[in-house]
Amino acid sequence: MDVKTGFFYLFSVVLLFAAFRVVTARNPVHAVLYLMLTFSQASAIWLILKAEFLAITLVLVYLGAVMVLFLFVVMMLDINIDNMRKSFWKHFPLAATLGAVVVLEMAAVLLSGFRISEEPKVARAVGQVAVEVSNSKELGKLLYTQYIYPVQVAAVILLVAMIAAIALTLRARKDTKTIDPSEQVRVRAADRLSVVRVPVTQAAPAVKPEEAA
What we know:
The protein is built from 10 helices and 2 strands. Strands 1-2 form a two-stranded antiparallel sheet. It is elongated and about 120 Å long. Helices cover 67% and strands 4% of the residues. α1 (3-24) packs antiparallel against α2, α2 packs antiparallel against α3 and α3 packs parallel to α7. The longest helix has 25 residues, at 52-76. It is mainly alpha-helical.
């Protein structure tokens, strides 16, 4: 077994473990974190398969945007974990059936084998010689030349989603005592200190001349 095969089995084992923990973790935040680990291991497998663009897209789009948004939503929602545990066995037969169907389909694909015996190579003819090129480089040139406007529109949409997620998580809570920094800067001593004149309620005793001497 070479190093490439060893890394493939390592990433696959971690991916399967993280995917199993996604559906068995009791804490929703932990489940989202395990899902992020699952996506990272899947991107590593894409790198081994020489699909660099798909690996980078999986990391940037899912780990960098979608999963962070999911994490914000889960942390904002007041999820009752006890009710979720009660409905676990209610939906377990359907989930087990769907899982068995997916496993059988994957087993059928793996047992039937693949038609491609060797990895495909991307080549470009330069004169009379075929020069091997990088697929990520060619995709990058295509995205930032022919599809530059759709890329910019997608970037603006992701920026709006990120700002909306931050705005939702920074809502003012009524049970916390927060102070506006701008009000602290404009504060004056007269606003914080006031001298109150208290009237005399009892006259001072008269002092005799002998005692004063």
